[in-house]
Amino acid sequence: MHFSLFKKAAHNTKTVRTVRIELQKLLLGFFITVAIIPVLFLGIWVQQSSLKSEIEAVEDKHLLLAKNLNSALSRYAVDLKAVFTEKAKHYQQDYPLETQALFDSFNICMMAYLRDKQLVYKTGKPDFLPKQGLTALAENQKKAFTNPGIVIISPIILNTQNHPTIYLLRVEPDDNTLVIGAVSTEYFIEVQKAITFGELGHAAIVDQTGQAIAHPNENWQKTAKDMSQITPVKLMLQRQTGVVKFYSPALQADMIAGYSFVPETGWGAMIPQPYAELEKNANKNQIIALLVSLVGLIFAILVSWELTKRLLTPIQSVINASEKLASGTEVKELKISGRLVPQEINTLIRSFDRMAVEVMKSRRYLEARVEKRTRELKIAKEKADGASLAKSEFLANMSHELRTPLNGILGYTQILKRSEHLRGKERIGINVIHQCGSHLLTLINDILDLSKIEARKLELEPKALHLPTLLQSVVEMCRIRAEQKSLEFTHHFSSRLPAGIYADEKRLRQVLINLLSNAIKFTEKGNVKLQVDVLELSDTQVSLLFQVIDTGIGIIDSDLPKLFQSFEQVGHHPKQSEGTGLGLSISQRIVQLMDGKINVRSQLGQGSEFYFSTSFPLSDNWKKEQNLKGKSDFIIGYSGPRLKILIVDDIWENRTILKNLLEPLGFEIMEAQNGQEGCDKLHSTKFDLVITDLVMPVMNGFEFLSHIRKTEMLAQTTVIVSSASVSMRDQQMAINKGGNAFLGKPVDIEALFQLLEKHLGLNWVYDHSKLSTWESNQSSIKELPEKVTLPPYPIIKTLLNSAKQADLQEVMQQIEKLVVSDNQYAPFADKILALAEQFQVEEIEDTLQRNLDELLRNG
Questions:
Q1: CA separation (Å) from 452 to 108, 384, 449, 456, 458?
Q2: What is the rounded distance in angstroms from the CA atom of residue 609 to the CA atom of residue 801?
């Protein structure tokens, strides 16, 4: 068993992609291929030669038939003219019977005599006049009068009964009498019907204009079908004789035809036959040749089968022995059977016997080695599992310990942000503290969620955001640390930068802060720069290039390949101890999810440049998203009776944060330090909602939830679980134990208010004066009121210079001094401060530039 595992592992280390086929099938395929090639060539040759012979025979036969048919038509035309001429000279009232018989033999159905367009005499059937009357013969009459004494033969014309008719015209030179004779097409039809051969071979006769006189298609014949566009008819009308291949509309098939014309009349006759009939005749010879070849092929297959069988029998015995050897069965010496055994196969079998002996020796040795190695791997796996369990326990404990102080930091920043006494500068400071704390929480989440990153399950959550605000917040967070090290921190954002994009705000901020933090950490003097440029900008998308450039210690080339590996800290700088070695690894993974890649250029002792480019969809509704995000800051209470909330948590700071957030809104708050104390208070007082921690002494949160759900009088109590243990396992367990919702620590005030609104059915009361001002600033903060008193030109110019340097602190200090010096500038100052609080540097620049332009226009 151990040897099989070792063999499988060894096989997986090197896989060769080959196409496998049995030797017997290979030999059979070879023999069949060799036999089938001449059969194919023979079949093609027989087909071509047979078809060529058929075509040559048909060309001669059809052309001869066409010429003979036209000779008959020529004689008929000559005799017809003669009879007509003779009777036209000597017309009389009643022709004798022999004359009428002569007319019938030539299909002359009517004769009429006209002098000065007046009918003098007529004999025969009246319905043989043209359907349109004598006007149908106008062109032929003109020819007859131009050539007195000459018989003019008209094309096919339908008579009054819609029967195809040929008309003869002749003008007597003596008295200028016009004689008209009507000839039916019966003679032509009889001649055409007499010529048939093959399955669809036939004759066709047309007049001097290409109309059908006689044709096997009766509809074409009755309607005098115009066939002048058919190839052989075209050639006949050009007074040519020959053989041609063409497509027949009547039969809808390719045809081959001999064709010729009647010199006396211009009539044409062709003898067509379907081309498929020639191919059919040629195929008969081909089938015979193929049958003979098939018999030879079958014979070759049988011989090949027997030959390969005799050759492969000893080889098959080697294969069977090899399979036994591979499965671990000991193989005895092979014996050769049969008389026909090639010398090479005999040598192969002897060599295989010697190899089998050596393989069995090696197998026993390898099995012993594999068994020993398996025991060692089992011990190593147990140690690794123990280490992994210890890591998980450590990370879980660290999560709880780190989130507890962060809950106090972020909680109080949210409380302070709601204060009415903060000025602009202090409010920006609180925002920076809150953003730094939020970023620290993000880093902790990433470290604690390392298993998700290693499993490639990290996902982005894009939403509409204001890009300048995000970038400015990153700048403010990193500027403080750079100033602590006396470094020059600069940034340059492209003037083409769009306002709104769709992106994962938290992840993009995390990447930029990681890169900037590394740059500041490894730079002792000089400067650190953040640069954002627009590579491409369309109506729906923007491609951005982010660059972080420093004058730090740089990175040697040998360390670049492992720069983005987890827990790797390259170089020998003492600053390595300040990080976890996860920042660049996580950042690279995030940028890859954005369809980008972090690249680095570095020179030891001179500095580094980290850069990446990626594309984002543009967003027009970022202001709406910003409005929804900050609206909770203006909640001052709720409508309805006062509600009671019990907070169960063993840490005083956590309880105090929730109490300071909720009591000013009108909630009555009571506290308990553990689950047991919480149960006692629930039994003595009715509460509308409970917020409980999980990890507590005496009775923990899970036991507390179980007690509530098992107690009939408390079973319907709404409980929100708020814990620093935020793993999916703990969250799901809290819900399974009876929690109505889960709120992670540090507590997010917006998430808390949303849960209270949902589970208590609250209607919040807002400070409408501040809310309307805030919403107004959010919807349109670029335009100043029409009646705003602007400061003097030098002051606005100084403010504009500070804004171009993105020094918002300087801008706000100047604004505060301006208001103190003269309160009439307060409306102007409020707008600039509103823009500064949202880090909208470009909007401040635009507003100040418009103010300068306005002052210049007004003198």
A1: 106, 18, 5, 6, 6
A2: 28
Pairing type for strands 635-638 and 764-766 reads: antiparallel
Cα 145 versus chain centre, distance = 80
- Dist CA 43 CA 177 (whole Å): 71
Q: Name residue 499's beta-bridge partners.
A: none
Taking all residues of the chain, what is their mean pLDDT, rounded to a whole number? 77
Whether pTM > 0.70 for this model: the answer is no
Residue 615 forms beta bridges with which residues? 543
Q: What is the DSSP track for 729-751?
A: HHHHHHHHTT-SEEEESSPPHHH
Peptide bond before 274: cis, by omega within 30 degrees of 0? no
Tokens of 441: 């929480």
How far is 406 from 743, CA to CA, in rounded Å?
A: 15
* Residue 494 in tokens: 């492209």
Residue 678 pLDDT more than 60?
yes
pLDDT one-digit tens code per residue, 724-761: 776 667 788 888 888 889 888 777 888 888 888 888 88
Confidence of residue 781 (pLDDT cuts 50, 70, 90): very low
Q: Tokens standing for 402?
A: 């780190």
544: left (phi over 0), alpha (psi -120 to 50) or beta: beta
Amino acid at 796: I
> Distance of CA 589 to CAs 454, 460, 584, 596, 779, Å?
10, 11, 9, 9, 36
Cα gap 752→760, rounded to integer Å: 12
Judged by average pLDDT, the poorest of 37-51, 133-147, 295-309, 446-460 is: 446-460
Q: Quick check: 694 and 704 in contact, CB under 8 A?
A: no
Residue 332: what residue type? K
What share of the chain has pLDDT > 90, as a percent?
9
Task: Starting at the earlier edge strand, list the strands of the sheet with 488-493.
Answer: 488-493, 527-537, 541-550, 607-617, 599-603
Query: Tokens at residue 32, please?
Result: 């069949």
Report, in angstroms and rounded to the nearest whole number, the Rg of the chain calculated over CA atoms: 53
3-state helix, strand, coil in the chain (%, to 5): 55, 20, 25
Closest CA to 400 of 598, 654, 204: 654
